[in-house]
Amino acid sequence: MGQGNSQFTEAELEDYQHLTYFTKKEILYAHKRFKELAPERVSHNRNAKLPMSKLLTMPELRANPFGDRDFLDMMSAFSDAAPKSVKAEYAFRIFDFDGDDYLGREDLVKTIERLIHPQRFKEDDLNVLINRIYEEADLDDDGMLAFAEFEHVISKSPDFSK
Ligand SMILES: [Ca+2]
Ligand SMILES: [Ca+2]
């Protein structure tokens, strides 16, 4: 019994939004694309697993938003089944593009630019968003997020509290 557009509750959407910085619209769009690949499976179970070969037919994945960052692994780490520590570690590793074990400004810029189409996001907005992330998460004020800081900030998300 889908009520129109969504197999997600508002609260779930909020969580995903918080976790990924996708907008609700983008989350619903991603799920819609997912569903189009295998409507017979996904419409009954929104956590349906699809074979890799099928997923790779998605133009979005062929364009490969995270390049070598193993986008599919990341998505599965965000699934409900993954324990909280795994989710946090995966996300941290993926967002740490230069591999120095901190999320610096460059890492966040790259992360956000890959999650959001840059042409829909003005540079000023990007800076504001990054400043807000640091304000909330950079507890020791060194301009970088260590794993502990990152884990702390995402643990506030209800999706991580299990
Ligand atoms: Ca880094
Ligand atoms: Ca810090």
TrEMBL record:
SUPFAM superfamilies: EF-hand
Keyword terms, alphabetized: Calcium, Integrin, Magnesium, Metal-binding, Repeat
GO BP term (any one): integrin-mediated signaling pathway
Parts of the chain that traverse the membrane: none
Alphabetical list of Gene3D superfamilies matching this protein: EF-hand (1.10.238.10)
Annotated GO MF terms: calcium ion binding; magnesium ion binding
Domain EF-hand: 83-118
InterPro entries tied to this protein: CIBP, EF-hand-dom_pair, EF_Hand_1_Ca_BS, EF_hand_dom
Protein name: Calcium and integrin-binding protein 1
Organism annotation: Armadillidium nasatum
Taxonomy of the source species: Eukaryota, Metazoa, Ecdysozoa, Arthropoda, Crustacea
